[in-house]
Specification:
Elements (H helix, E strand, L loop, with lengths): L1 H28 L8 H6 L13 E9 L6 E2 L17 E2 L1 E9 L16 E11 L14 E14 L3 E8 L3 E2 L19 E8 L11
Antiparallel strand pairs: 1-4, 2-3, 4-5, 5-6, 6-7, 6-8, 7-9
């Protein structure tokens, strides 16, 4: 009986040890997958799995409503006057906006030895809709007024910096407006300009953004 008991205990010990060894091997062979943020990828020398790669095209779109007495002014009209037969109505009730980034090199840490993963193109636009005259007429009309847009080139730099070149054309009006006295010209406040700037990101550490 004693020999049988000892044999049984030995069998249980061997089985338990074998199961622990198998579990250890499984943990070693299949480590948990770690998420790869954009900043980690851009610093990495090897590309991640396809399902973890950052998108080459990304952006956003939104829609905004300006309540009465808060209309958006595209700079197409001067000071409204009740004595004008056909006052300028280019004061917007709605604004639809969009932004897109095209990152052709984001999935490669280097291209021909040059780190280009942080270089990308961008474009944005704001579409204004409405038919209003401050202090005279407030409507909910979505009549198209015009569009403001810009585009440019960006190059990422260390420590959350970006060097940005932006091209901004004049505001594009969809129709002619009867400008009152004080009209400031075809460019308006959203006129044509080209600028070179530096942007600094902060507060992204640990959240997958620039560091």
């Amino acid at each position: 009986m004693k020999k049988l008991f000892l044999s049984a205990m030995a069998l249980v010990s061997i089985t338990a040890a074998s199961e622990m060894k198998i579990e250890a091997q499984e943990r070693t062979a299949s480590p948990p997958l770690e998420s790869i943020s954009h900043s980690e990828f851009e610093r990495s020398a090897t590309p991640p799995a396809a399902e973890s790669r950052p998108s080459m095209i990304r952006g956003y779109g939104d829609f905004n409503l300006a309540p009465p007495h808060n209309e958006l002014d595209a700079g197409l009209c001067g000071t409204p006057s009740s004595q004008v037969a056909a006052p300028c109505t280019a004061f917007a009730r709605y604004m639809a906006s969009g932004y897109v980034e095209i990152r052709p090199f984001v999935r490669w840490s280097k291209v021909f030895g040059v780190p280009l993963s942080g270089v990308y193109l961008f474009g944005d636009a704001n579409l204004l809709l409405g038919n209003n005259i401050p202090q005279q007429k407030y409507t909910w009309s979505p009549q198209a007024i015009g569009i403001e847009k810009s585009w440019g080139l960006v190059a990422s730099a260390p420590h959350g910096f970006e060097v940005r070149i932006t091209q901004h054309p004049p505001f594009s009006s969809f129709r002619k407006f009867n400008q009152a006295n004080g009209y400031i010209g075809s460019n308006g406040p959203w006129g044509r300009y080209n600028i070179v700037g530096v942007r600094k990101y902060f507060g992204y550490r640990g959240s997958g953004g620039p560091e």
